Structure formats: C-alpha cells, structure tokens
Write a sequence for this structure.
C-alpha cells in the first residue's frame, strides 16, 4: 500500500460522513412536518411501500420520526461533546499551574469517575429538572473526566519538553507558556477527544431520555421513540423498536469511524 | 519483607483516598440534590398535597430540617450516615438501607453472572482474534466488538425481547418470576429462566471492551521477541497463544473487568428497566422519577463504593501479582 492511500481513504471517508451528517442536519428542510403528521387511517401500519418503516400508534411515519430523532441526538451530542471538551481542557490547563490545583482537580476527576455514569446523569438531570439543556449539561459534566485525565497527562509531560524549559528560563510566565506553548500542542487531541466523547454523549442522552428523565417526551427523540415502542412491545409491533435504535447505532458507528480515521490521519 | 511493608503503605494510602473520594461523592450528590427545583415535601406528599395546610407543610419542612442552611443539613446527614442511618425511602416506605440490600441481592445475580460471562467470553474471543491477526475470524470478532461498542444497551434489550420473548416465546417477557407468585416460592429454574435474556444482553455488551483490549495485547505479544523465539523453536501460533498469551493478557483483562464495574452497573439500570426486573437499577430510576431523595443519595453512595472497591481491586491485582510495578506514590 502506498503511503498516500490511507490518507486518501481518510479524506474520502470524511467527505462521505460530512455529506451524510449535513443531510441529517438539513433534514427539516425536506422533512417538513412529517415527523409530527398523524394519519388516523394508517395507525400501527407495518413497513410497506407507502409507509417505509411503518407507522406508530398515532399513524406517524417511523422513518420521519427516526430522522428527526437522530438530528436531535446529533445536536445534543455535539453540544455536550464540545462543552465536555471545553471543561476538560480548561481544568487540565488549570491543573498544570500548581500542584495544589492539580491535586484538587485529580480528586474531582476521581470522584466523578467513581459514580457510575448513568447514576451521575440521573442525579444531575434531577438537580436541573430535566429538559434539553439539562441533558446537555449533565452529559458534558459526566464525560469530561476521562478526557481531562488524558489531556492532563499530556500537558504534564509537555511541561518538561526542551522548548518549554528554554522559554521558562527566558523568563516567560506560566500563563504565557500555557497559552502559547502548551495549549496549541494539545488542540488536535481535543478535536479527537471531542469526537470520541460524541458517541458516548449520544448513547447516554438516548438512555436518559428512554428512562424518562431526559428530553421532553413530546419531542421525537430516539429515547422517546424507544420508550414508546416498549409500550407496544408485547403486541409485536417490531418496527417501532427496531428502526429508531438501528438509526442510532448507524449514527454512532459513523461518528466513531470518523474519529478513528481522523486520529490516524492526524 | 520490604515489599510487604510498601504494599501495606500503598494499601493504606489507597484506602484513605477511597474514603476521601466517598466523602466527595457524598458532598457532590448532596449538593446536586439541594440544587433540584423539585420540592422534597411536595414530592413526599404527592397527590395528598391538596389536603395539607400551609402550616402543616411548614411543620413537615421544619421537622425534616429544611429551614437550616445547606451546610448544616449536610453535616446532619453525614453524621447520620456515619452511624449507619441512610434515611427513609418514601416510595417504598422502608429504610433506605433495607431497600438497597433487598434490591441489590436480586441485582447481584444479574450483575455477577453477566460480569463473569463477559470476562470469560470476551477474553477467549480476544485471545483468538489477537492470535490470528488479520484472519477472517479476527475480522469477524473485532467487527462485532466495534459494533457492540456503538450499540445502545437498551435497544439491544428491546430487540432481544421482541425476538426471544414475543416471537419465539423462549423467554418470559418480564420480571424476576411469574406474576402472582411470591418471590420465596419461585424455583431456581424459573429464576434462571427469567434471568437468561437480561444476562445475555448485558453480557453481549460487556464483551466488546475486554475483547478489543485482549486482542491488542495478543497482537503485541505475537510481534514480541518471546514469540519470535518460540516460532524459531517450531511452535505454532496456537501454542504461543496458549502457553504465553493467556498468561500475558489475563492480568490486564482482569484489571479492566474490575475497572468497568461502573459501566456494568449503568447497563444493568437500563436492562432492569426493560425487563421490569426488580433490582437496584429499577429502584434507581424510580427514585429519580419520583424524587425519593434519601434513596437516590443512598444508591449514589452505594454504587460509588461498589465502583471504587472494584477499582481498588483492579489496582491491587497488579501490585499483588506483578511485583515489578512501582509501588505508587510512597
């Protein structure tokens, strides 16, 4: 294999993923009101040519609702991942300033990592009273520690790099070194870190919503769709449960692969 | 001898750290609950709220100490905690410690069997995939692991119920026993029958991380000098995997298994919700949805203890089994 081939593959994949994701983001333009449109003559219709993925108990198209749900998941995921990365970067940077701060932040990381994610999510969602914003904050607050740990370790080793030592002996302040030497170095890590946080964020958002403490149950979120499907599960309306989850799985896989490709390319 | 002393010191340090972390968890959980816009008195009263006069409400609030500042309340709660009193769960009308122990005794069957199975199967798959890197078998196994790592736990549960309970009718749809039968009267076989699908779902998802981790280890081993030497002596890949690989990869796998208890517990919450399995996970969701603050706090602390002890075991395993590892900060 020639050395350019993996890069070419990476670029092709990234282009493909970007096109796919932008179609998803722009979906309201071509979906219109389809996710909320009720058809009382076609309730709980199985998948067919006229109802691609079937309809739910109110005759709403499952494919349209799934797409709308994925779009919502995407936004929540991206906001939570960016917020989580920002928290991780800030705290990791602060940790390099003094050993006391470092100890404090390490303790905070250990504390957050010792509570199972879902329980911490439940607690934070409970504290903030539910809703989209609460979910974004909750997911960001539970997911930054693992990234902060990596960034902190990276920053701590960088502190002893020759160029940083030279800069320090030239009399540059800690803040200057942090801002101009250390941070630019870890920014690529942050990008990949955010992309790696993203799938976790999406899956946890869906789980939280599924349990009934996340997004508003009137929105077509994947968690809401699946919770709905649970109600009709014994009657055998399999399309209600299978497709939204499959959509979520594909979205997560797509972003996961994107992160993997980017990490290898960087 | 010197090693023993250092090990004891290390363990003492870790236990101290564990206590500190648990204290922080308690403070964090308490702080979060205090932030909540949901009024605990309203939540306690529920629909009876209309029958209670403002004076009575104030009396309840005073009786529960809601008038005092949060720091005082926290101190009070902490003192109670230290004397082993976790409070009263209003949704189950039982002491929190009793709810947790009852529920946990049911969850432990689910958790331990899923944990054990995922460790064993995950390890075996990882060894096989790593030993035959690049083969079709390896591609199938790692592809499976990548996909399950991206699968929503609860969705797999739903698909499992649809397939095995609704269509094939092999497994019961819900609960820990048949409806209308007291839990003491349920036979072991019925119990296992009810556990089969939840355990299988939880296991399928737990396998991925251990498989991928073990696979990486095995690949590293196969490229190491140990393997080159063994190849030169005429050993096959299977021989090397069997003689060196398992020893080489088992410790990291076991460590990972202990370190991933939190994730396992998170998965169990969702699985219990789907299968209506009356374990600790289901109680957690109920406590969150119906604002049972003492129970929520108790569960947060209990699971933090559970996860921290798991992490401590993971670290200790390394120190006990592999003496080359530096003995921590001391």
């Amino acid at each position: 294999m020639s050395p350019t081939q993996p890069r070419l593959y990476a670029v092709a994949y990234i282009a493909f993923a970007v096109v796919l994701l932008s179609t998803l983001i722009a979906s309201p333009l071509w979906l219109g009101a389809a996710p909320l449109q009720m058809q009382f003559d076609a309730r709980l219709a199985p998948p067919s040519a006229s109802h691609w993925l079937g309809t739910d108990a109110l005759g709403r198209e499952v494919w349209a609702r799934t797409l709308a749900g994925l779009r919502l998941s995407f936004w929540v995921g991206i906001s939570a991942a960016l917020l989580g990365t920002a928290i991780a970067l800030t705290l990791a940077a602060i940790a390099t300033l003094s050993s006391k701060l470092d100890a404090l932040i390490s303790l905070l990381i250990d504390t957050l990592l010792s509570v199972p994610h879902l329980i911490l999510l439940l607690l934070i969602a409970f504290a903030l009273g539910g809703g989209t914003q609460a979910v974004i904050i909750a997911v960001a607050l539970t997911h930054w520690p693992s990234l902060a740990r990596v960034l902190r370790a990276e920053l701590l080793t960088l502190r002893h790099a020759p160029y940083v030592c030279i800069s320090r002996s030239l009399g540059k302040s800690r803040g200057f070194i942090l801002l101009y030497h250390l941070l630019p170095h870890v920014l690529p890590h942050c990008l990949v870190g955010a992309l790696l946080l993203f799938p976790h964020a999406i899956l946890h958002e869906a789980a939280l919503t599924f349990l009934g403490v996340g997004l508003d149950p009137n929105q077509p979120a994947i968690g809401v769709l699946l919770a709905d499907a649970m109600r009709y599960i014994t009657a055998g309306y399999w399309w209600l449960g299978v497709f939204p989850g499959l959509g979520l799985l594909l979205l997560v896989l797509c972003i996961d692969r994107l992160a993997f490709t980017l990490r290898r390319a960087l | 001898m010197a090693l023993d002393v250092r090990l004891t010191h290390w363990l003492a340090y870790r236990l101290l750290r564990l206590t500190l972390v648990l204290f922080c968890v308690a403070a964090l959980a308490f702080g979060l609950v205090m932030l909540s816009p949901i009024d605990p008195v309203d939540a306690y009263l529920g629909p009876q709220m209309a029958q209670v006069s403002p004076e009575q409400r104030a009396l309840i609030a005073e009786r529960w100490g809601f008038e005092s500042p949060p720091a005082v309340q926290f101190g009070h709660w902490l003192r109670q905690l230290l004397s082993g009193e976790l409070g009263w769960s209003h949704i189950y009308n039982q002491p929190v410690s009793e709810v947790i122990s009852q529920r946990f005794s049911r969850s432990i069957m689910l958790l331990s069997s899923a944990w054990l199975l995922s460790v064993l199967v995950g390890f075996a798959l990882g060894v096989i995939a790593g030993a035959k890197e690049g083969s079709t078998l390896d591609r199938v196994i790692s592809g499976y692991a990548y996909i399950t790592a991206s699968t929503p736990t609860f969705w797999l549960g739903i698909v499992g119920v649809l397939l095995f309970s609704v269509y094939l009718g092999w497994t019961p749809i819900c609960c820990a026993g048949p409806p209308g039968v007291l839990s003491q009267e349920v036979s072991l076989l019925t119990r296992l029958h009810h556990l089969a699908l939840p355990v299988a779902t939880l296991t399928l998802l737990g396998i991925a991380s251990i498989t991928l981790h073990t696979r990486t280890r095995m690949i590293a081993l196969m490229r190491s000098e140990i393997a080159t030497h063994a190849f030169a002596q005429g050993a096959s890949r299977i021989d090397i995997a069997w003689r060196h690989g398992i020893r080489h990869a088992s410790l990291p796998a076991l460590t990972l298994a202990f370190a991933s208890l939190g994730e396992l517990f998170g998965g169990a919450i969702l699985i219990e919700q789907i299968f209506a399995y009356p374990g600790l996970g289901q109680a957690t969701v109920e406590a969150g949805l119906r604002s049972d603050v003492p129970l929520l706090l108790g569960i947060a602390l209990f699971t933090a203890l559970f996860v921290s002890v798991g992490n401590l075991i993971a670290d200790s395993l390394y120190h006990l089994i592999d003496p080359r590892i530096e003995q921590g900060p001391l």
User: Anything to note?
Assistant: The CA atoms of residues 85 and 194 of chain A lie 6 Å apart. Chain A touches chain B through 47 residues (CB under 8 Å).
